[in-house]
Amino acid sequence: MTLRGYFDVMDYGAKGDGSNDLAALQSAVDAADAAGGGTVWLGPGRFWIGNGTLKIGQANAQHHINLEGINPNTTQILCDTSAGNAAIYLNLEKYVTINNFSIINEGARGGIGLQLGGDAGAGTQTNGNSVEHLFLQNFDKGVSTSGGLGTSSEITFDHCVFQGNNYGFHSANFNGLNYLFLMLEMYSNSIAGFHIEVGNATVIGGASANNKNDFYIAGGNDGQVKIIGFRGEQPTDAWLVAPSNSYLSVEDCIVHPRANGVEVMRLAGDVYVRNCELLGYITWGGAAMTSLTLERVWVVTPGTDWSVGNQYSSATPPFGPGFRLTNNTGLQAEARARIFGVYEGSNNTVYPNGDYIQVVRPSDNMRCMVKV
Predict the structure, then answer these.
(1) Cis peptide, bond prior to residue 318, ω within 30 of zero
(2) Element (H, E) at 7
(3) Residue partners of 271: CB distance under 8 A and separation at least 6
(4) Long-range contacts (CB closer than 8 Å, 24 or more residues apart) made by 267-275
């Protein structure tokens, strides 16, 4: 018996035995589209789609088509995206759910597992969607948003796993924004588990291991990211990198780097770090008129890398008496650092609380960190 609103891909010729099922899956999606919406039921199986793309919402009518499997082990969509194509493209669809299956590229690493976007028109086009219990492996980008394809925003990712990609999640530009990640898992992604150009995202909970960077925030003034309650294990580079003037908040996180006392965060803009165990040190570029706030943070730094006093030279170590977060010559005028309850684990030091403002003296290239 076929339930109203459900479109079983087996009824449209899918076999789920590794033979090419793209035409059958697309027929089920098109039938749901023609009916004004519904749930496309994948069921158990290994659904091979080759180097093609399963297009959801291709009629551009926002018919609210869901795509549902049983679980990521039992339901798998297998593909070859080595030529750069996307396995699944969610286009101009709102308030849909994609859940409970794997998308695995069996060709050379490349392409996209799930592409979110729209056309070239204005306004929010693909939004209000929920991506749940999805496993994505061996892509250039596990999930990619926008990239000139129209706005995708207000999307929730719940218990998704990005493993063995170049990028797990990649937001290309300001056409992709407002993402919520719940219990995000990222493993062995060679460039970044989570990469966002601009836009804002919140990550609540989750874990990682063996990515190059777990988080890379490239987005300048529009890069607004909040990370709460995340546990990062052994990234091969810094755990979090934000080279532009982003607005970041990192709270209640634990990071175990590849070794105690190596760089954990590489930052430039406005950053708030609270109640975190980092087991490494922070590099902060201190762009003009930005601030770094550390509140109840446990760090580990090599040697005597931290000190508090009046000034230091921008030449080579050892610096004179002064305040610094690393061997860093990039601090600019009016860059503030606020320190509250920071504990350095390698020499059992609690650093003096204070609010410090950075002033550059061009005459001798000395920097003065004045406590205010």
Answers:
(1) yes
(2) strand 6-8
(3) 242, 246, 248, 249, 250, 265, 284, 291, 292, 293
(4) 267/240, 267/241, 267/242, 267/292, 268/242, 268/243, 268/244, 268/330, 269/221, 269/223, 269/242, 269/244, 269/245, 270/245, 270/246, 271/242, 271/246, 272/248, 273/297, 274/249, 274/250, 275/251
CA distance 8 to 40: 6
Task: Read off the amino acid at residue 14.
Answer: A
Phi, psi dihedrals of residue 67, rounded to the nearest 5°: -125, 120
Rounded Cα distance between 136 and 158, Å, is 13
What residues contact 87, with CB distance under 8 A and at least 6 apart? 49, 53, 54, 77, 79, 81, 103, 105, 111, 112, 113, 114, 139
Give the C-alpha separation, 272 to 295, whole Å. 8
Q: Identify which of 132, 68, 67 has the alpha carbon closest to the alpha carbon of residue 93.
A: 67
Query: Which pair of tokens denotes residue 349?
Result: 């030091």
Sheet architecture: strand order including 112-117:
54-56, 86-91, 112-117, 141-145, 167-171, 192-196, 213-217, 240-242, 263-267, 281-284
pTM: 0.89
Classify burial at 322, counting beta carbons within 10 Å of its beta carbon; exposed 0-12, middle 13-18, buried 19 or more: middle
3-state secondary structure of 128: coil
Q: How far is CA 232 from CA 123, 138, 279, 334, in A?
A: 36, 21, 11, 32
Q: What is the pLDDT along the chain (372 residues), one digit of tens a residue?
A: 356 789 999 999 999 999 999 999 999 999 998 888 899 999 999 999 999 999 987 555 667 889 999 999 999 999 999 999 999 998 878 888 999 999 999 999 999 999 987 655 555 578 889 999 999 999 999 999 865 556 788 899 999 999 999 999 998 866 667 899 999 999 999 999 999 887 789 999 999 999 999 999 987 656 689 999 999 999 999 999 998 877 899 999 999 999 988 889 988 888 999 999 999 888 887 777 788 899 999 988 765 544 433 333 333 333 333 344 444 455 666 778 888 888 877 777 776 677 766 655 444 444 555 555
